[in-house]
Fold these 3 entries.
Entry 1:
Amino acid sequence: MRFALAGIVVATVLAVAACSNEGGAVQSGSRVVRGASPEAGKAQIVRYGCGACHTIPGVKEAKGLVGPPLIHFGKRGTIAGFWSNTPDHLTDWIQDPQHMLPGNDMPTLGVTRNEARNITAYLESLQ
Ligand code: HEC
C-alpha cells in the first residue's frame, strides 16, 4: 500500500515538473527556426492567401475571420488546440493540416517544406 502511494506521489511530481519545463521553454524564446527567413515567410503568407481566413499581425492583407486570429502566435501553447506549438509541429501543420488533424477546416494548400519553415519563422516571431 505504501509503495503504491509513493508511486502516485512520484508520478504527480514528474507531471508537474514536465509542465513547468514546457513553460520555461516558451519564456526562453527557444522557438527559433534555424536557417529560415521570417521575411520570406511573410511574402509566402501573402502568396498562399492565408489572410483570406486568418488575421495575421504585420500582414496588411490578412484580415480573414474564418480561422482563428494568429495574434501572439509565438506565445501560444498549442496549434489547433491539439499539437504543442513547436517549430516542427507548426511546420508540419502549415505543410499538411489535413494530415495533422484530419477533417479540420484548414485545407492543405501545397506549401513546400522550406516555405512552411519560413512561414513558421514568421509566426513564431509574433510575440
Ligand atoms: C480556407 C481557410 C484557411 C486558409 C486558407 C488557411 N487556414 Fe489556417 N486555419 C483555418 C482554420 C479553420 C483553422 C482552425 C483549425 C482547427 O482548430 O480545427 C486554422 C488553423 C491554423 C493554425 C492554428 C491556429 C491556432 O489558433 O491554433 C495556424 C498556425 C494556421 N491555421 C496557419 C495558416 C497558414 C500559415 C496559412 C497559409 C499557408 C493558413 N493557415 C491558411 C483556416 C484556414
Entry 2:
Amino acid sequence: MALTFDDGPDPVFTPRLLDVLKKHRTKATFFMVGKAAERHPDIVREVAVAGHTIGNHSWDHPSFPMITGRERREQIQACEKAIAPYGVKLFRPPYGDQSLRSRLEASWLGYQVIMYSVTAVDWLDHDADWMKSRIMNRIANGSIILFHDSLFQYRESRYANREPMLDALDMLLEELGERYTFVTIPELMRQGRPQMAYWVKTTDINILNERSGPYGGPPRYAKVQ
Ligand SMILES: [Zn+2]
C-alpha cells in the first residue's frame, strides 16, 4: 500500500508527520502545493532527504476542470519549479477533480496522474479512531491512501488541526505494520497494480466557493467551457 499526504508542506505538522513515519520506518509520497513549498523550502528538502517521494499538487490548488488549459499548464509548471530539484513527475489534481482534457494535458507535460482509492476524510472534523477504522475497513493490497499534512482550504479553522490525522496514522501503522508494507508511489507501481478510483470527477462549484483558505481571501472560480 502507499500512504500519500497532500497540500503540504506545513511548518508545524509536516516535521511531526516525518517523525511518525520515521518511528514506523515507513516511506510515503507527498503531493505538495507549490505556493506552500516556495514558502518552506527547508521542509521540502527535509522530506526528500528522509527518503520520501515528492509529487506535484498544483501551484495554488484550483479545481482543474474549472480553469483554462493554459492556467492548468502554468499551475503544474509553477509547482514543478517550487519543488525542484526533489519533485518527480507525478501529479495529483486538487480535490481529485479532473476532466479527460486536464488528464491529457498532465501527460503532455510528462506527468503521470495519481489518484487514490481510500481517503481518511481528514479535511472534516473526525477523531483519530473514526479515521483509523474507516481506513481499516477499506484497505487492500495496492491501496493508495489519501491523508493531508496540511489543508490548503478548510470550512472551519479547527479542521486544520492535524493532530487527529497524526494519531490515526500512528495507530494504523502500529496495527498494520506487521501485515502490510507501505511504499512510495513509484515503488508501488514497480511492484504491482495500484488501486485507484475516481478517474474523472468534478466538484460542485458552489461547494468550492464556500471554502476559505489560509492563503488570503475566498477562492474565486469561474466555469470554463
Ligand atoms: Zn489538495
Entry 3:
Amino acid sequence: MADAYIFIGPPGAGKGTLGDIFCEKTGVIHVSTGQLLRDEMAAGSDLGKQVKDIIAAGKLVSDDIVAAMVKNRLAKADIKAHGCLLDGFPRTVPQAETLEKILADGGDRMAAVVLIEADRKMLMGRLTSRRMCSNKECGAIYNVISQPPKKEGVCDKCGAPLYQRSDDTEATAIDRLKVYEEQTAPLVDFYASRGQLVKITSEDAPAEENYKALAKVLGK
Ligand SMILES: [Zn+2]
C-alpha cells in the first residue's frame, strides 16, 4: 500500500521548496503531471502520441488522459514502496474524486493533504520583489527583499537601470492570489470534509524552518 500526499499552497508560500525537501528527506517520490505528460510523449506510448496531437492542436489535455497517466504511474513498484507527492493533480473536485477511486483501486491511500497558509502581506512582498537588469546582455536578477542591489534601481554588475516585469507587479500578484483562492477553496473543503486536511503556516523564515512545521503535522 502506498501513501499519497498533496500540498496545497498559494504562490509565494514556498510549496515547491517544501515539497523538494519533503521528498529528499522521506524518499517519497515527486509525481508531477507536467513531467508525466513529457515522459509519455518522450516514450512515444499510445497515450503519449494522443497527448502530442492534443497539444499540437492547441487543446487542453482532458481529465481522463491525465487520470490514466496518474493511474499508470501510481501502479509502479517505486511508488508502492515509497509513496508519492502529487503535483498538478487534482486541481478540481471531480479530479479529486477520480483520484480517490484510483487510490482505492490500487489499494493505496491518501495519507495527508497539507494546506500551506501564509500571511498575505508576506506573499505580496515575495511576489513583487523581483527586479531585472534592463541590459539584455547582462540579465542579472535581483530581489529587493533577499538580494537587493547595492544602489536602489541600479544593476551592481553593469550599472543599467533595473525594472519590474509585468509578471511581478502588484496587480498580477493580487490576481494570482485571487485565482488560487477561487480554484483551491472547493478542494480544501473536499479534503477537510474527509478528515484528510492538515494545515501549516509558512513563516517568513528559511525553508528548513518551515519544513519542521510540516514534518511535525505529518509525524515524520
Ligand atoms: Zn546588469
